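Q&A FORM
Asked by: J.P.
Topic: structure of Cadherin domain-containing protein

PROVIDED:
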Amino acid sequence: MEVDCVWNTYLLANVLNLLLHSCVCVDLSYHVEEESNPFTFVGDIAADTQMEETDSLVGNNFITYNQMQQQWTANSHLFNVTQDGKLYTAQTLDAEKLCTYESECVRYIKVAVRKRKTFLKIIKIKVIIEDINDHSPEFPQKEINMTFGERDGEGAEGLIPDAIDKDIGMENSEITYKLKKQFSDPFILSVRKTITGGAKIGIILGDKLDREIQDSYNLEVIANDGG
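REPLIED BY: S.T.
REPLY: Here is the structure written out as tokens.
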């Protein structure tokens, strides 16, 4: 009978251990806006791991969460994890600086889960840093002198550089252009997308020019983003 008792205890311990492993083996995904202040709440790891399970954690008062250390740089320590599983920002996040050439700004965090001193699992957390429309598109030059001759016919074109928007979000960095001019000015704006994602901006002559009638024109190209 004593042997049976020890065997049953062993089985119970293993079943409990497997249950705890399955409860915390969950990958999570959170969103946080850039420019949020330090200590902004991002998510509750402890609560969200339990929500995805049919059974609640057994003895979860003894479960602690610790962010795994990585090589520290100014841009690496972006988040803090409390021992009870709360995830916060550690500094103000700037999506443009963190993810300059990426369409989506993502950081991954690994959190070690322990029950008392026993290691249980590592949870991998994906944090999407959402871009806000905090930049307006700007042209590299404020003014450009463009020359057309009287011999230039309809369809002659002069090119200008496209505008640059530092926002990385697809919606916030999508630029549209319009031409501001006098109604009688014989010019048309041409915008052609390039394979690199930029634009080829042209001022097209819509009619022949006559220097004796008018020798100069002031045109304004306006760039707007989608935010």
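FOLLOW-UP: Residues 1-26, 51-58 have pLDDT under 50 and may be disordered.
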